Amino acid sequence: MNAMAKDLSGLHPMQIVFFRALGTFVFIFPYMLYHRVPIVGNHVGVLIARALVGIVSLATFFICLQRIPLASAVSIRYLGPVFGAVLAFYFLRERINNWQWFSFLVSFSGVIVIKGFDLRIDYVSLALIMTSAVFLGTVFVLIRYLSTREHYLTIINYFMVCCMLLGLCFVSSWSMPAPEQWPSVIGIGVFGLIGQVFMTKAYQITEASVLAPFKYAGLIYALLIGYFFFGETFTLMPMIGIVMIVAGMLLNIYGKRLQTKSDVQQEAST
User: Fold this and answer.
1) Coil, strand or helix at 161
2) In Å, how far are 39, 45, 140, 207 from 98, measured between CA atoms?
3) What's the pTM?
4) Can you tell me whether residue 18 is helix, strand or coil?
5) How far apart are CA 148 and CA 125, in angstroms?
6) What are the mean pLDDT values of the chain's consecutive 10-residue runs (270 residues total)?
7) Per-domain residue ranges for the chain?
8) What are the C-alpha distances in Å from 161 to residues 28, 56, 85?
């Protein structure tokens, strides 16, 4: 999906957001009607807030895909869980242990290394991708709040509808895709839907810590796609920065597992 979004360079970012949402909506909405999944939901304000925050994250990410290498954008956006953990610490009273704070430091150091040694990443692009990561972290917190209160398809559907409505607000800035871009126009929503459904299902049947290595393996695909389809290469130091970001995220997962194990032991002792 990310590669297809990058292939649509030259189109307005909100036009890409619209196509991303439309391709998912045409499949999800009939399914929801058939299975009588709630369309409106019970927490409309939070659902709209989650949708708007997600749109900002997605739009800024798509802008960055047009400005910087694919793997750089994907890796820096991995900081989303870091910001999500910090926000959950303040708003949901979730604890952060020392291992996690250290993992955050490692990941942010990786961003500094990438920015310092990859001249293709200007300060505007860095600000945009960091904004995307912050808002992605906010999305995680809002989804955590809604996960026990709303059907997951209701949450997704709100996001898709708001994406389409806001995308149409920028229709005057849209342009006709080139003939070779139409596979990406059609495919971005389909591949986004497939990834979203299978990821959601995976998180329903196993722990996040088990899935983390597979999630971050997406960076390998981004490196390969960037190289073979967009001619993007990296020198040693930016690659080290990318590895530091992923290593920090894996350390974060390890820190959370230690915290969970400690909590279980404390409950057993009491």
Assistant:
1) helix
2) 41, 35, 21, 21
3) 0.89
4) helix
5) 36
6) 91 95 92 95 95 96 95 92 85 82 92 92 95 93 87 92 96 94 93 83 67 78 93 94 91 79 70
7) 2-170+190-262
8) 11, 14, 27
